[in-house]
Amino acid sequence: MSLTLYLHPLASFCHKVLIALYENGTPFTPQMVDLNDEGAAAAHLARWPVGKIPVLHDSENRRVVPETSIIIEYLQAHYPGPVRLLPENDELSLETRQWDRFFDLYVNVPMQKIVIDRIRPADAKDPYGVEEARATLRVAYGMIEGQLWAGQWAMGEAFTLADCAAAPALFFASIVEPFPPEHGNLSAYLDRLLERPSVRRALREAEPYFSMFPYRDAMPERYLNL
């Protein structure tokens, strides 16, 4: 098996790539990275000096591929499957990339800001930054609500890269900053994502690690029985 994905099962950005792999049944070897372990951290920094996960290693093509969106595009180019996650149409592909970046930058990133702040020492907390992150999420929720009128997925009727990004971002964001009741399209969209087999598999594999999630006490019961 030529593909190895270096990851942590609780990391939302890792879930994004796992969903893409599971959508197409792409064979790969998952390799957990414990960045708190000195040896594992050093090995990963040698692999990708930025130190972020996930990272894909393709031994057949002798490539190390970082960054979630790039990994998924690489998989489509070199290991295509039945589900095309980036449309062939140039304009639709561009819009898909735009929404992929939107879910990463305006849902996943502010969600992580809120989560990380909860485990900071009392004298290092950033309440102003957390409120900014919550405000960003509320704006993002409204924009997603408007995007979803046209179909069941982010880009309409086809499941794409944008949905791979949306699923883990919205799953965790809905815990730290619940959706307003008026955003029915958004709530229904997350429900559909959670029914998608690839998404359910990624989250079920994460469940043994949910106790490590700083907002575990706020997780809805249904999130524990996917």
Plain-language structure description:
The protein has a four-stranded mixed β-sheet with strand order 2-1-3-4, covered by helices on one side. It starts with a strand and ends in a 20-residue tail after the last helix. The chain contains eight helices and four strands. With 226 residues, it is of the alpha+beta class. It has helices spanning 12-24, 38-47, 68-78, 90-118, 127-147, 161-176, 184-195, 197-206; strands at 3-7, 29-32, 55-58, 63-66. The chain folds into two domains: 3-78, Glutaredoxin (3-Layer(aba) Sandwich); 90-224, Glutathione S-transferase Yfyf (Class Pi), Chain A, domain 2, CATH 1.20.1050. Helices cover 54% and strands 8% of the residues.
Task: Please supply descriptive tags for the structure shown above.
single chain, 226 residues, alpha+beta, Glutaredoxin, Glutathione S-transferase Yfyf (Class Pi), Chain A, domain 2, 2 domains, 8 helices
Second rung of CATH, namely the architecture of the largest domain: Up-down Bundle
Strand order of the largest sheet: 2-1-3-4
Major sheet details: 4 strands, mixed
Q: Which runs of at least 5 residues are low in confidence (pLDDT < 50)?
A: none
Q: Whole-Å distance between the termini?
A: 29 Å
Strand segment tally: 4
Mean pLDDT: 95
So what's the overall shape?
globular
CATH topology of the largest domain, by name, is Glutathione S-transferase Yfyf (Class Pi), Chain A, domain 2
**Which range best describes the helical content: under 10%, 10-25%, 25-40%, 40-55%, 55-70% or over 70%?**
40-55%
Question: What kind of assembly state do the chains in view correspond to?
Answer: single chain
Number of helices: 8
* Rg (CA only): 17 Å
Tell me what portion of residues adopts beta-strand conformation.
5-15%
Tell me the count of domains. Answer: 2
Q: H/E element string?
A: EHEHEEHHHHHH
The class by helix and strand makeup works out as alpha+beta
